[in-house]
User: What shape does this take?
Amino acid sequence: MRKWREAIALGVICFILLLAIIIQMNTIDEMTREVGGFSLIGNQERRNDYLRARTEYRATISELQRTEERLANIRSLALANNEEYAAREIDLTRYNAILGLTEIRGNGITILLDDNRDEEARETFSVSGLLIHEEDILNIINELFNAGADAISVADERTEQRIVSTTAIMCDGNVIRVNGEIIGVPVTIRAIGSTTGLYHALNRPGGYLEILRNHGITVLVIREDNVAIPRFEGIHRDDYIN
Assistant: This one.
């Protein structure tokens, strides 16, 4: 009984933290609109508020993750002698992995992308054709899912973003945003799935990677036995589902 009371208490804490994250995300979205573009440079006070909100958001996310880990441990102990509930816990863990709510590992591939940095190429192609755009990332992700990828992430040297059903990949001026986070070059795309299937699907003749290579974009596809993809740190919105 005590374990169940602890589980309920931690569940309430998770709910409160989740509400705090939603509020902070809305605050950050509003600040991003107000402080975006050139005004970010010209308004130091708003910029500081934005960065402070981002720091608080990340701290709350970390606290939520620690609380969820404690809750998972308590659930495991409470369900140790109950086969029916243990089976449901296995299903829950699997569904959370599919939704992107947990970090996962498995066989797959890593794709490394970088702009064409050859100065002489500017004489042949337009500058736009030498750069990686949001549509390039979208096309590669679509090819990966079509090839049977179970999970995908997009990363640069600062952040790694899990691709979920609500992920937005967009061009924001001269930068790419994934889940609202700026992604710079070089770009790393990780996918979990059949290593051989994903590799050959991406490198097939006439595939999208071949088109990028023909424009001098640096493309490297690596087969890996242990690809790690982080959890989705945003909020799944379902405001219009009855």
